[in-house]
What we know:
Chain A is mainly α. In chain A, 77% of the residues lie in helices and 0% in strands. Chain A has helices spanning 11-39, 55-62, 64-97, 103-109, 112-115, 118-137, 147-171, 175-183, 188-217, 220-225, 233-243, 247-283. A two-stranded antiparallel sheet of chain B has the order 1-2. The longest helix of chain B is centred in the N-terminal third of the chain and has 36 residues, at 9-44. At the A-B interface, helix 1, helix 3, helix 4, helix 5 and helix 6 of A face helix 1, helix 3, helix 4, helix 5 and helix 6 of B.
Amino acid sequence: MSGLVAVGVGQRTRRWLAAWTWVVFAFLYVPIVVLVVFSFNASSRVNIWGGFSVQWYGEALRNDVITSAIRVSLIVALVSTVVSVVLGTAVALALDRYRFRGRRALDGTVYLPIVIPDITMAVMLLVFFAEAFKLIDSFGPRLTLGISTVALSHIAFNISFVCVVVRARLDQFDRTLEEAARDLYATGWQTFRRITLPLIMPGIAAGGLLALTLSLDDVVISAFVAGPGSTTLPVYVFSSIRRGVTPELNAISTLMLTASIALVLGSLALQRRRSGASRQTQVL
Amino acid sequence: MNAPDSREGAAVRARRRQGMLLASPGALYLLIFFVAPLALISVYSFATRTSTGRTSLSGWNIESYRAIGDDIIVGIIARSAWLATLTTVLCLAVGYPFAYYIATRPRHVRAILLVLVMIPFWTNGLVRVFAIRFLLGSNGPASALSESLGFGTFRILFTPTAVTIGMVYSFLTLMVLPLYVALERMDWSLTEAARDLYASGARAFWRVTLPLTRSGIVAGCVLVFVPSFGSYVVPDILGGAKTLLIGSYIARQFRDARNWPLGASLSVLLIVAMLIAVAFNQRSGSGAEDADGPRARGRRRHRDGAEAKAEAS
């Protein structure tokens, strides 16, 4: 495979293709780079370069609304990731390994949250919480939208994503390794703990990182199910953009950008290490 | 699937119970926080809006579905479909040569280029749309540049053009990844054979390469069309009054307009449309592997991402 050069394509066409590819890369990267550069702009007018400065970062981080939004985002991301990793992995294992009543219905349903557009998922959950609160309120407690409804909603879509990723890993799973363990008198739990879990761990880790990213990314669903005081960072940014571009906004966006790029690179590094490790196990 | 030991019915039942036990917490969660809301919104789509903007569930009717036939709403749906189609075609035109070039590089170069594709893809989507808004704004750097060159101020923001640019920018990778997978898996000796049989380069491409990567094209188109059609964030940030799309219109029904039944019926319509698109893809996609791409929407990108990332490492 490695000696592949554009087959059936002439020298000139290939040069055009190469040029086009770099144009597309520029299209993908220039807006991001410009945003990052201007976040270090000393001038308070967003379009005029007034020298290098980090003052907008300081200003953003001194803003209580922003720090509170960051805190909400992190709490929601962590809680929804942990819960959805546990539930999603369990569902993936059950669907992959077992036959039980309702299996097919579950198999179909679990993909739906992935297919449905954000906006419909958002209004669905909004209507659901409104109705549920009406019902619960008639028993006494008064519930309102808040950080818990945001977390509950994020778990609802993250379970599906974790499940899909873990299942992809289970598909490549070499079942003879489990059988070998059982032949050597390992109990079911020992087999799971010592063989199955370590082997699907890269899938679980990838699913967890995905859940974390999606939760930190989500704006539409959070915007609908968050109450006053439980605004997440993307929801804050979204509503601020409507009021216009400020240098502060550039700084927060750059911080968000850095966080998500760190997550990608981290997961790439992780995957690289793991795939090396799993190759070794395969050799063994 | 592994056949359970059929000699021992008890063992089978035990295993079945085990499976159910394992699945039930997640299944229960989805039942409460996904299936119930889905059912509820379907019920709401048949409800009545009272004069005070509340929703009355007594007396079901199809009034809100009938309202969809209204000229304004038909216009919004048509505009959404048109912009989504335009976005899809542009992504295909931009993405195919791009994916082709990357897929035909030597392996180590390919891995690096793929990482370069993945980085913006995993980057916060809202921030990327904001970057476009910042760049294209009439007081943004692009405009400042064109002013200093004497071309005058940019007036592109809040037009359909800006929305289209934003959507192509947001969803391009969703097109590139399935195309890349299809091109990378292709058996190039077939193209070579066509060339040996005196087909011109263009002819070999149209008759051999393109048909062989059809599943990637279909998957990519569905992956781009679905989130563009239901897009809410992009038109909201980059669009203006003339670019009201169905996603924003639904949001509006649940916020200022307080017409929940209408919003609910439009949501049901949108969900059905998405399911049809995905089903179409699954049928025409050439197999289970490519059906990976299809189960998707905007956020679903990450799944493909995972696949392509595995490729990259």
